[in-house]
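not sure who needs this but someone in the group chat was asking about Insertion element IS402-like domain-containing protein from Streptomyces lividans TK24 so here u go. i didnt clean anything up, its just raw.
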Amino acid sequence: MWDRIKPLMPVEPVRGRRWANRRRTLETIAWKFRTGSPWRALPDELGSFQTAHKRLLRWAAYGIWERILAALLAAADGVDDIGWTVSVDSTVCRAHQHAAGARIKGHHGTTSG
């Protein structure tokens, strides 16, 4: 998978400090969202959470995530390796109380004529 993603990642700047390993940073971001853990709970072997968080935001601003997703979806769709079935569990959907027809304070629902 990395061989597909690597060409889509931003190149390191010519000047300034070297970036943290892009592959490890990507693995760190994936781990965070896969486990649902807070950023500060990253294991030490994944590196600094500040680096991963900043890179996540920077790559989002540059459109890197959209580019990666589009390329991976196109590749998977091209070899018919993707299923487009979507399932929604309605038990977790909630409406705001006003959407359920709750009364507004001071409003009795009658009109005076």
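also The helical segments are 2-5, 22-35, 49-61, 64-78. if thats useful
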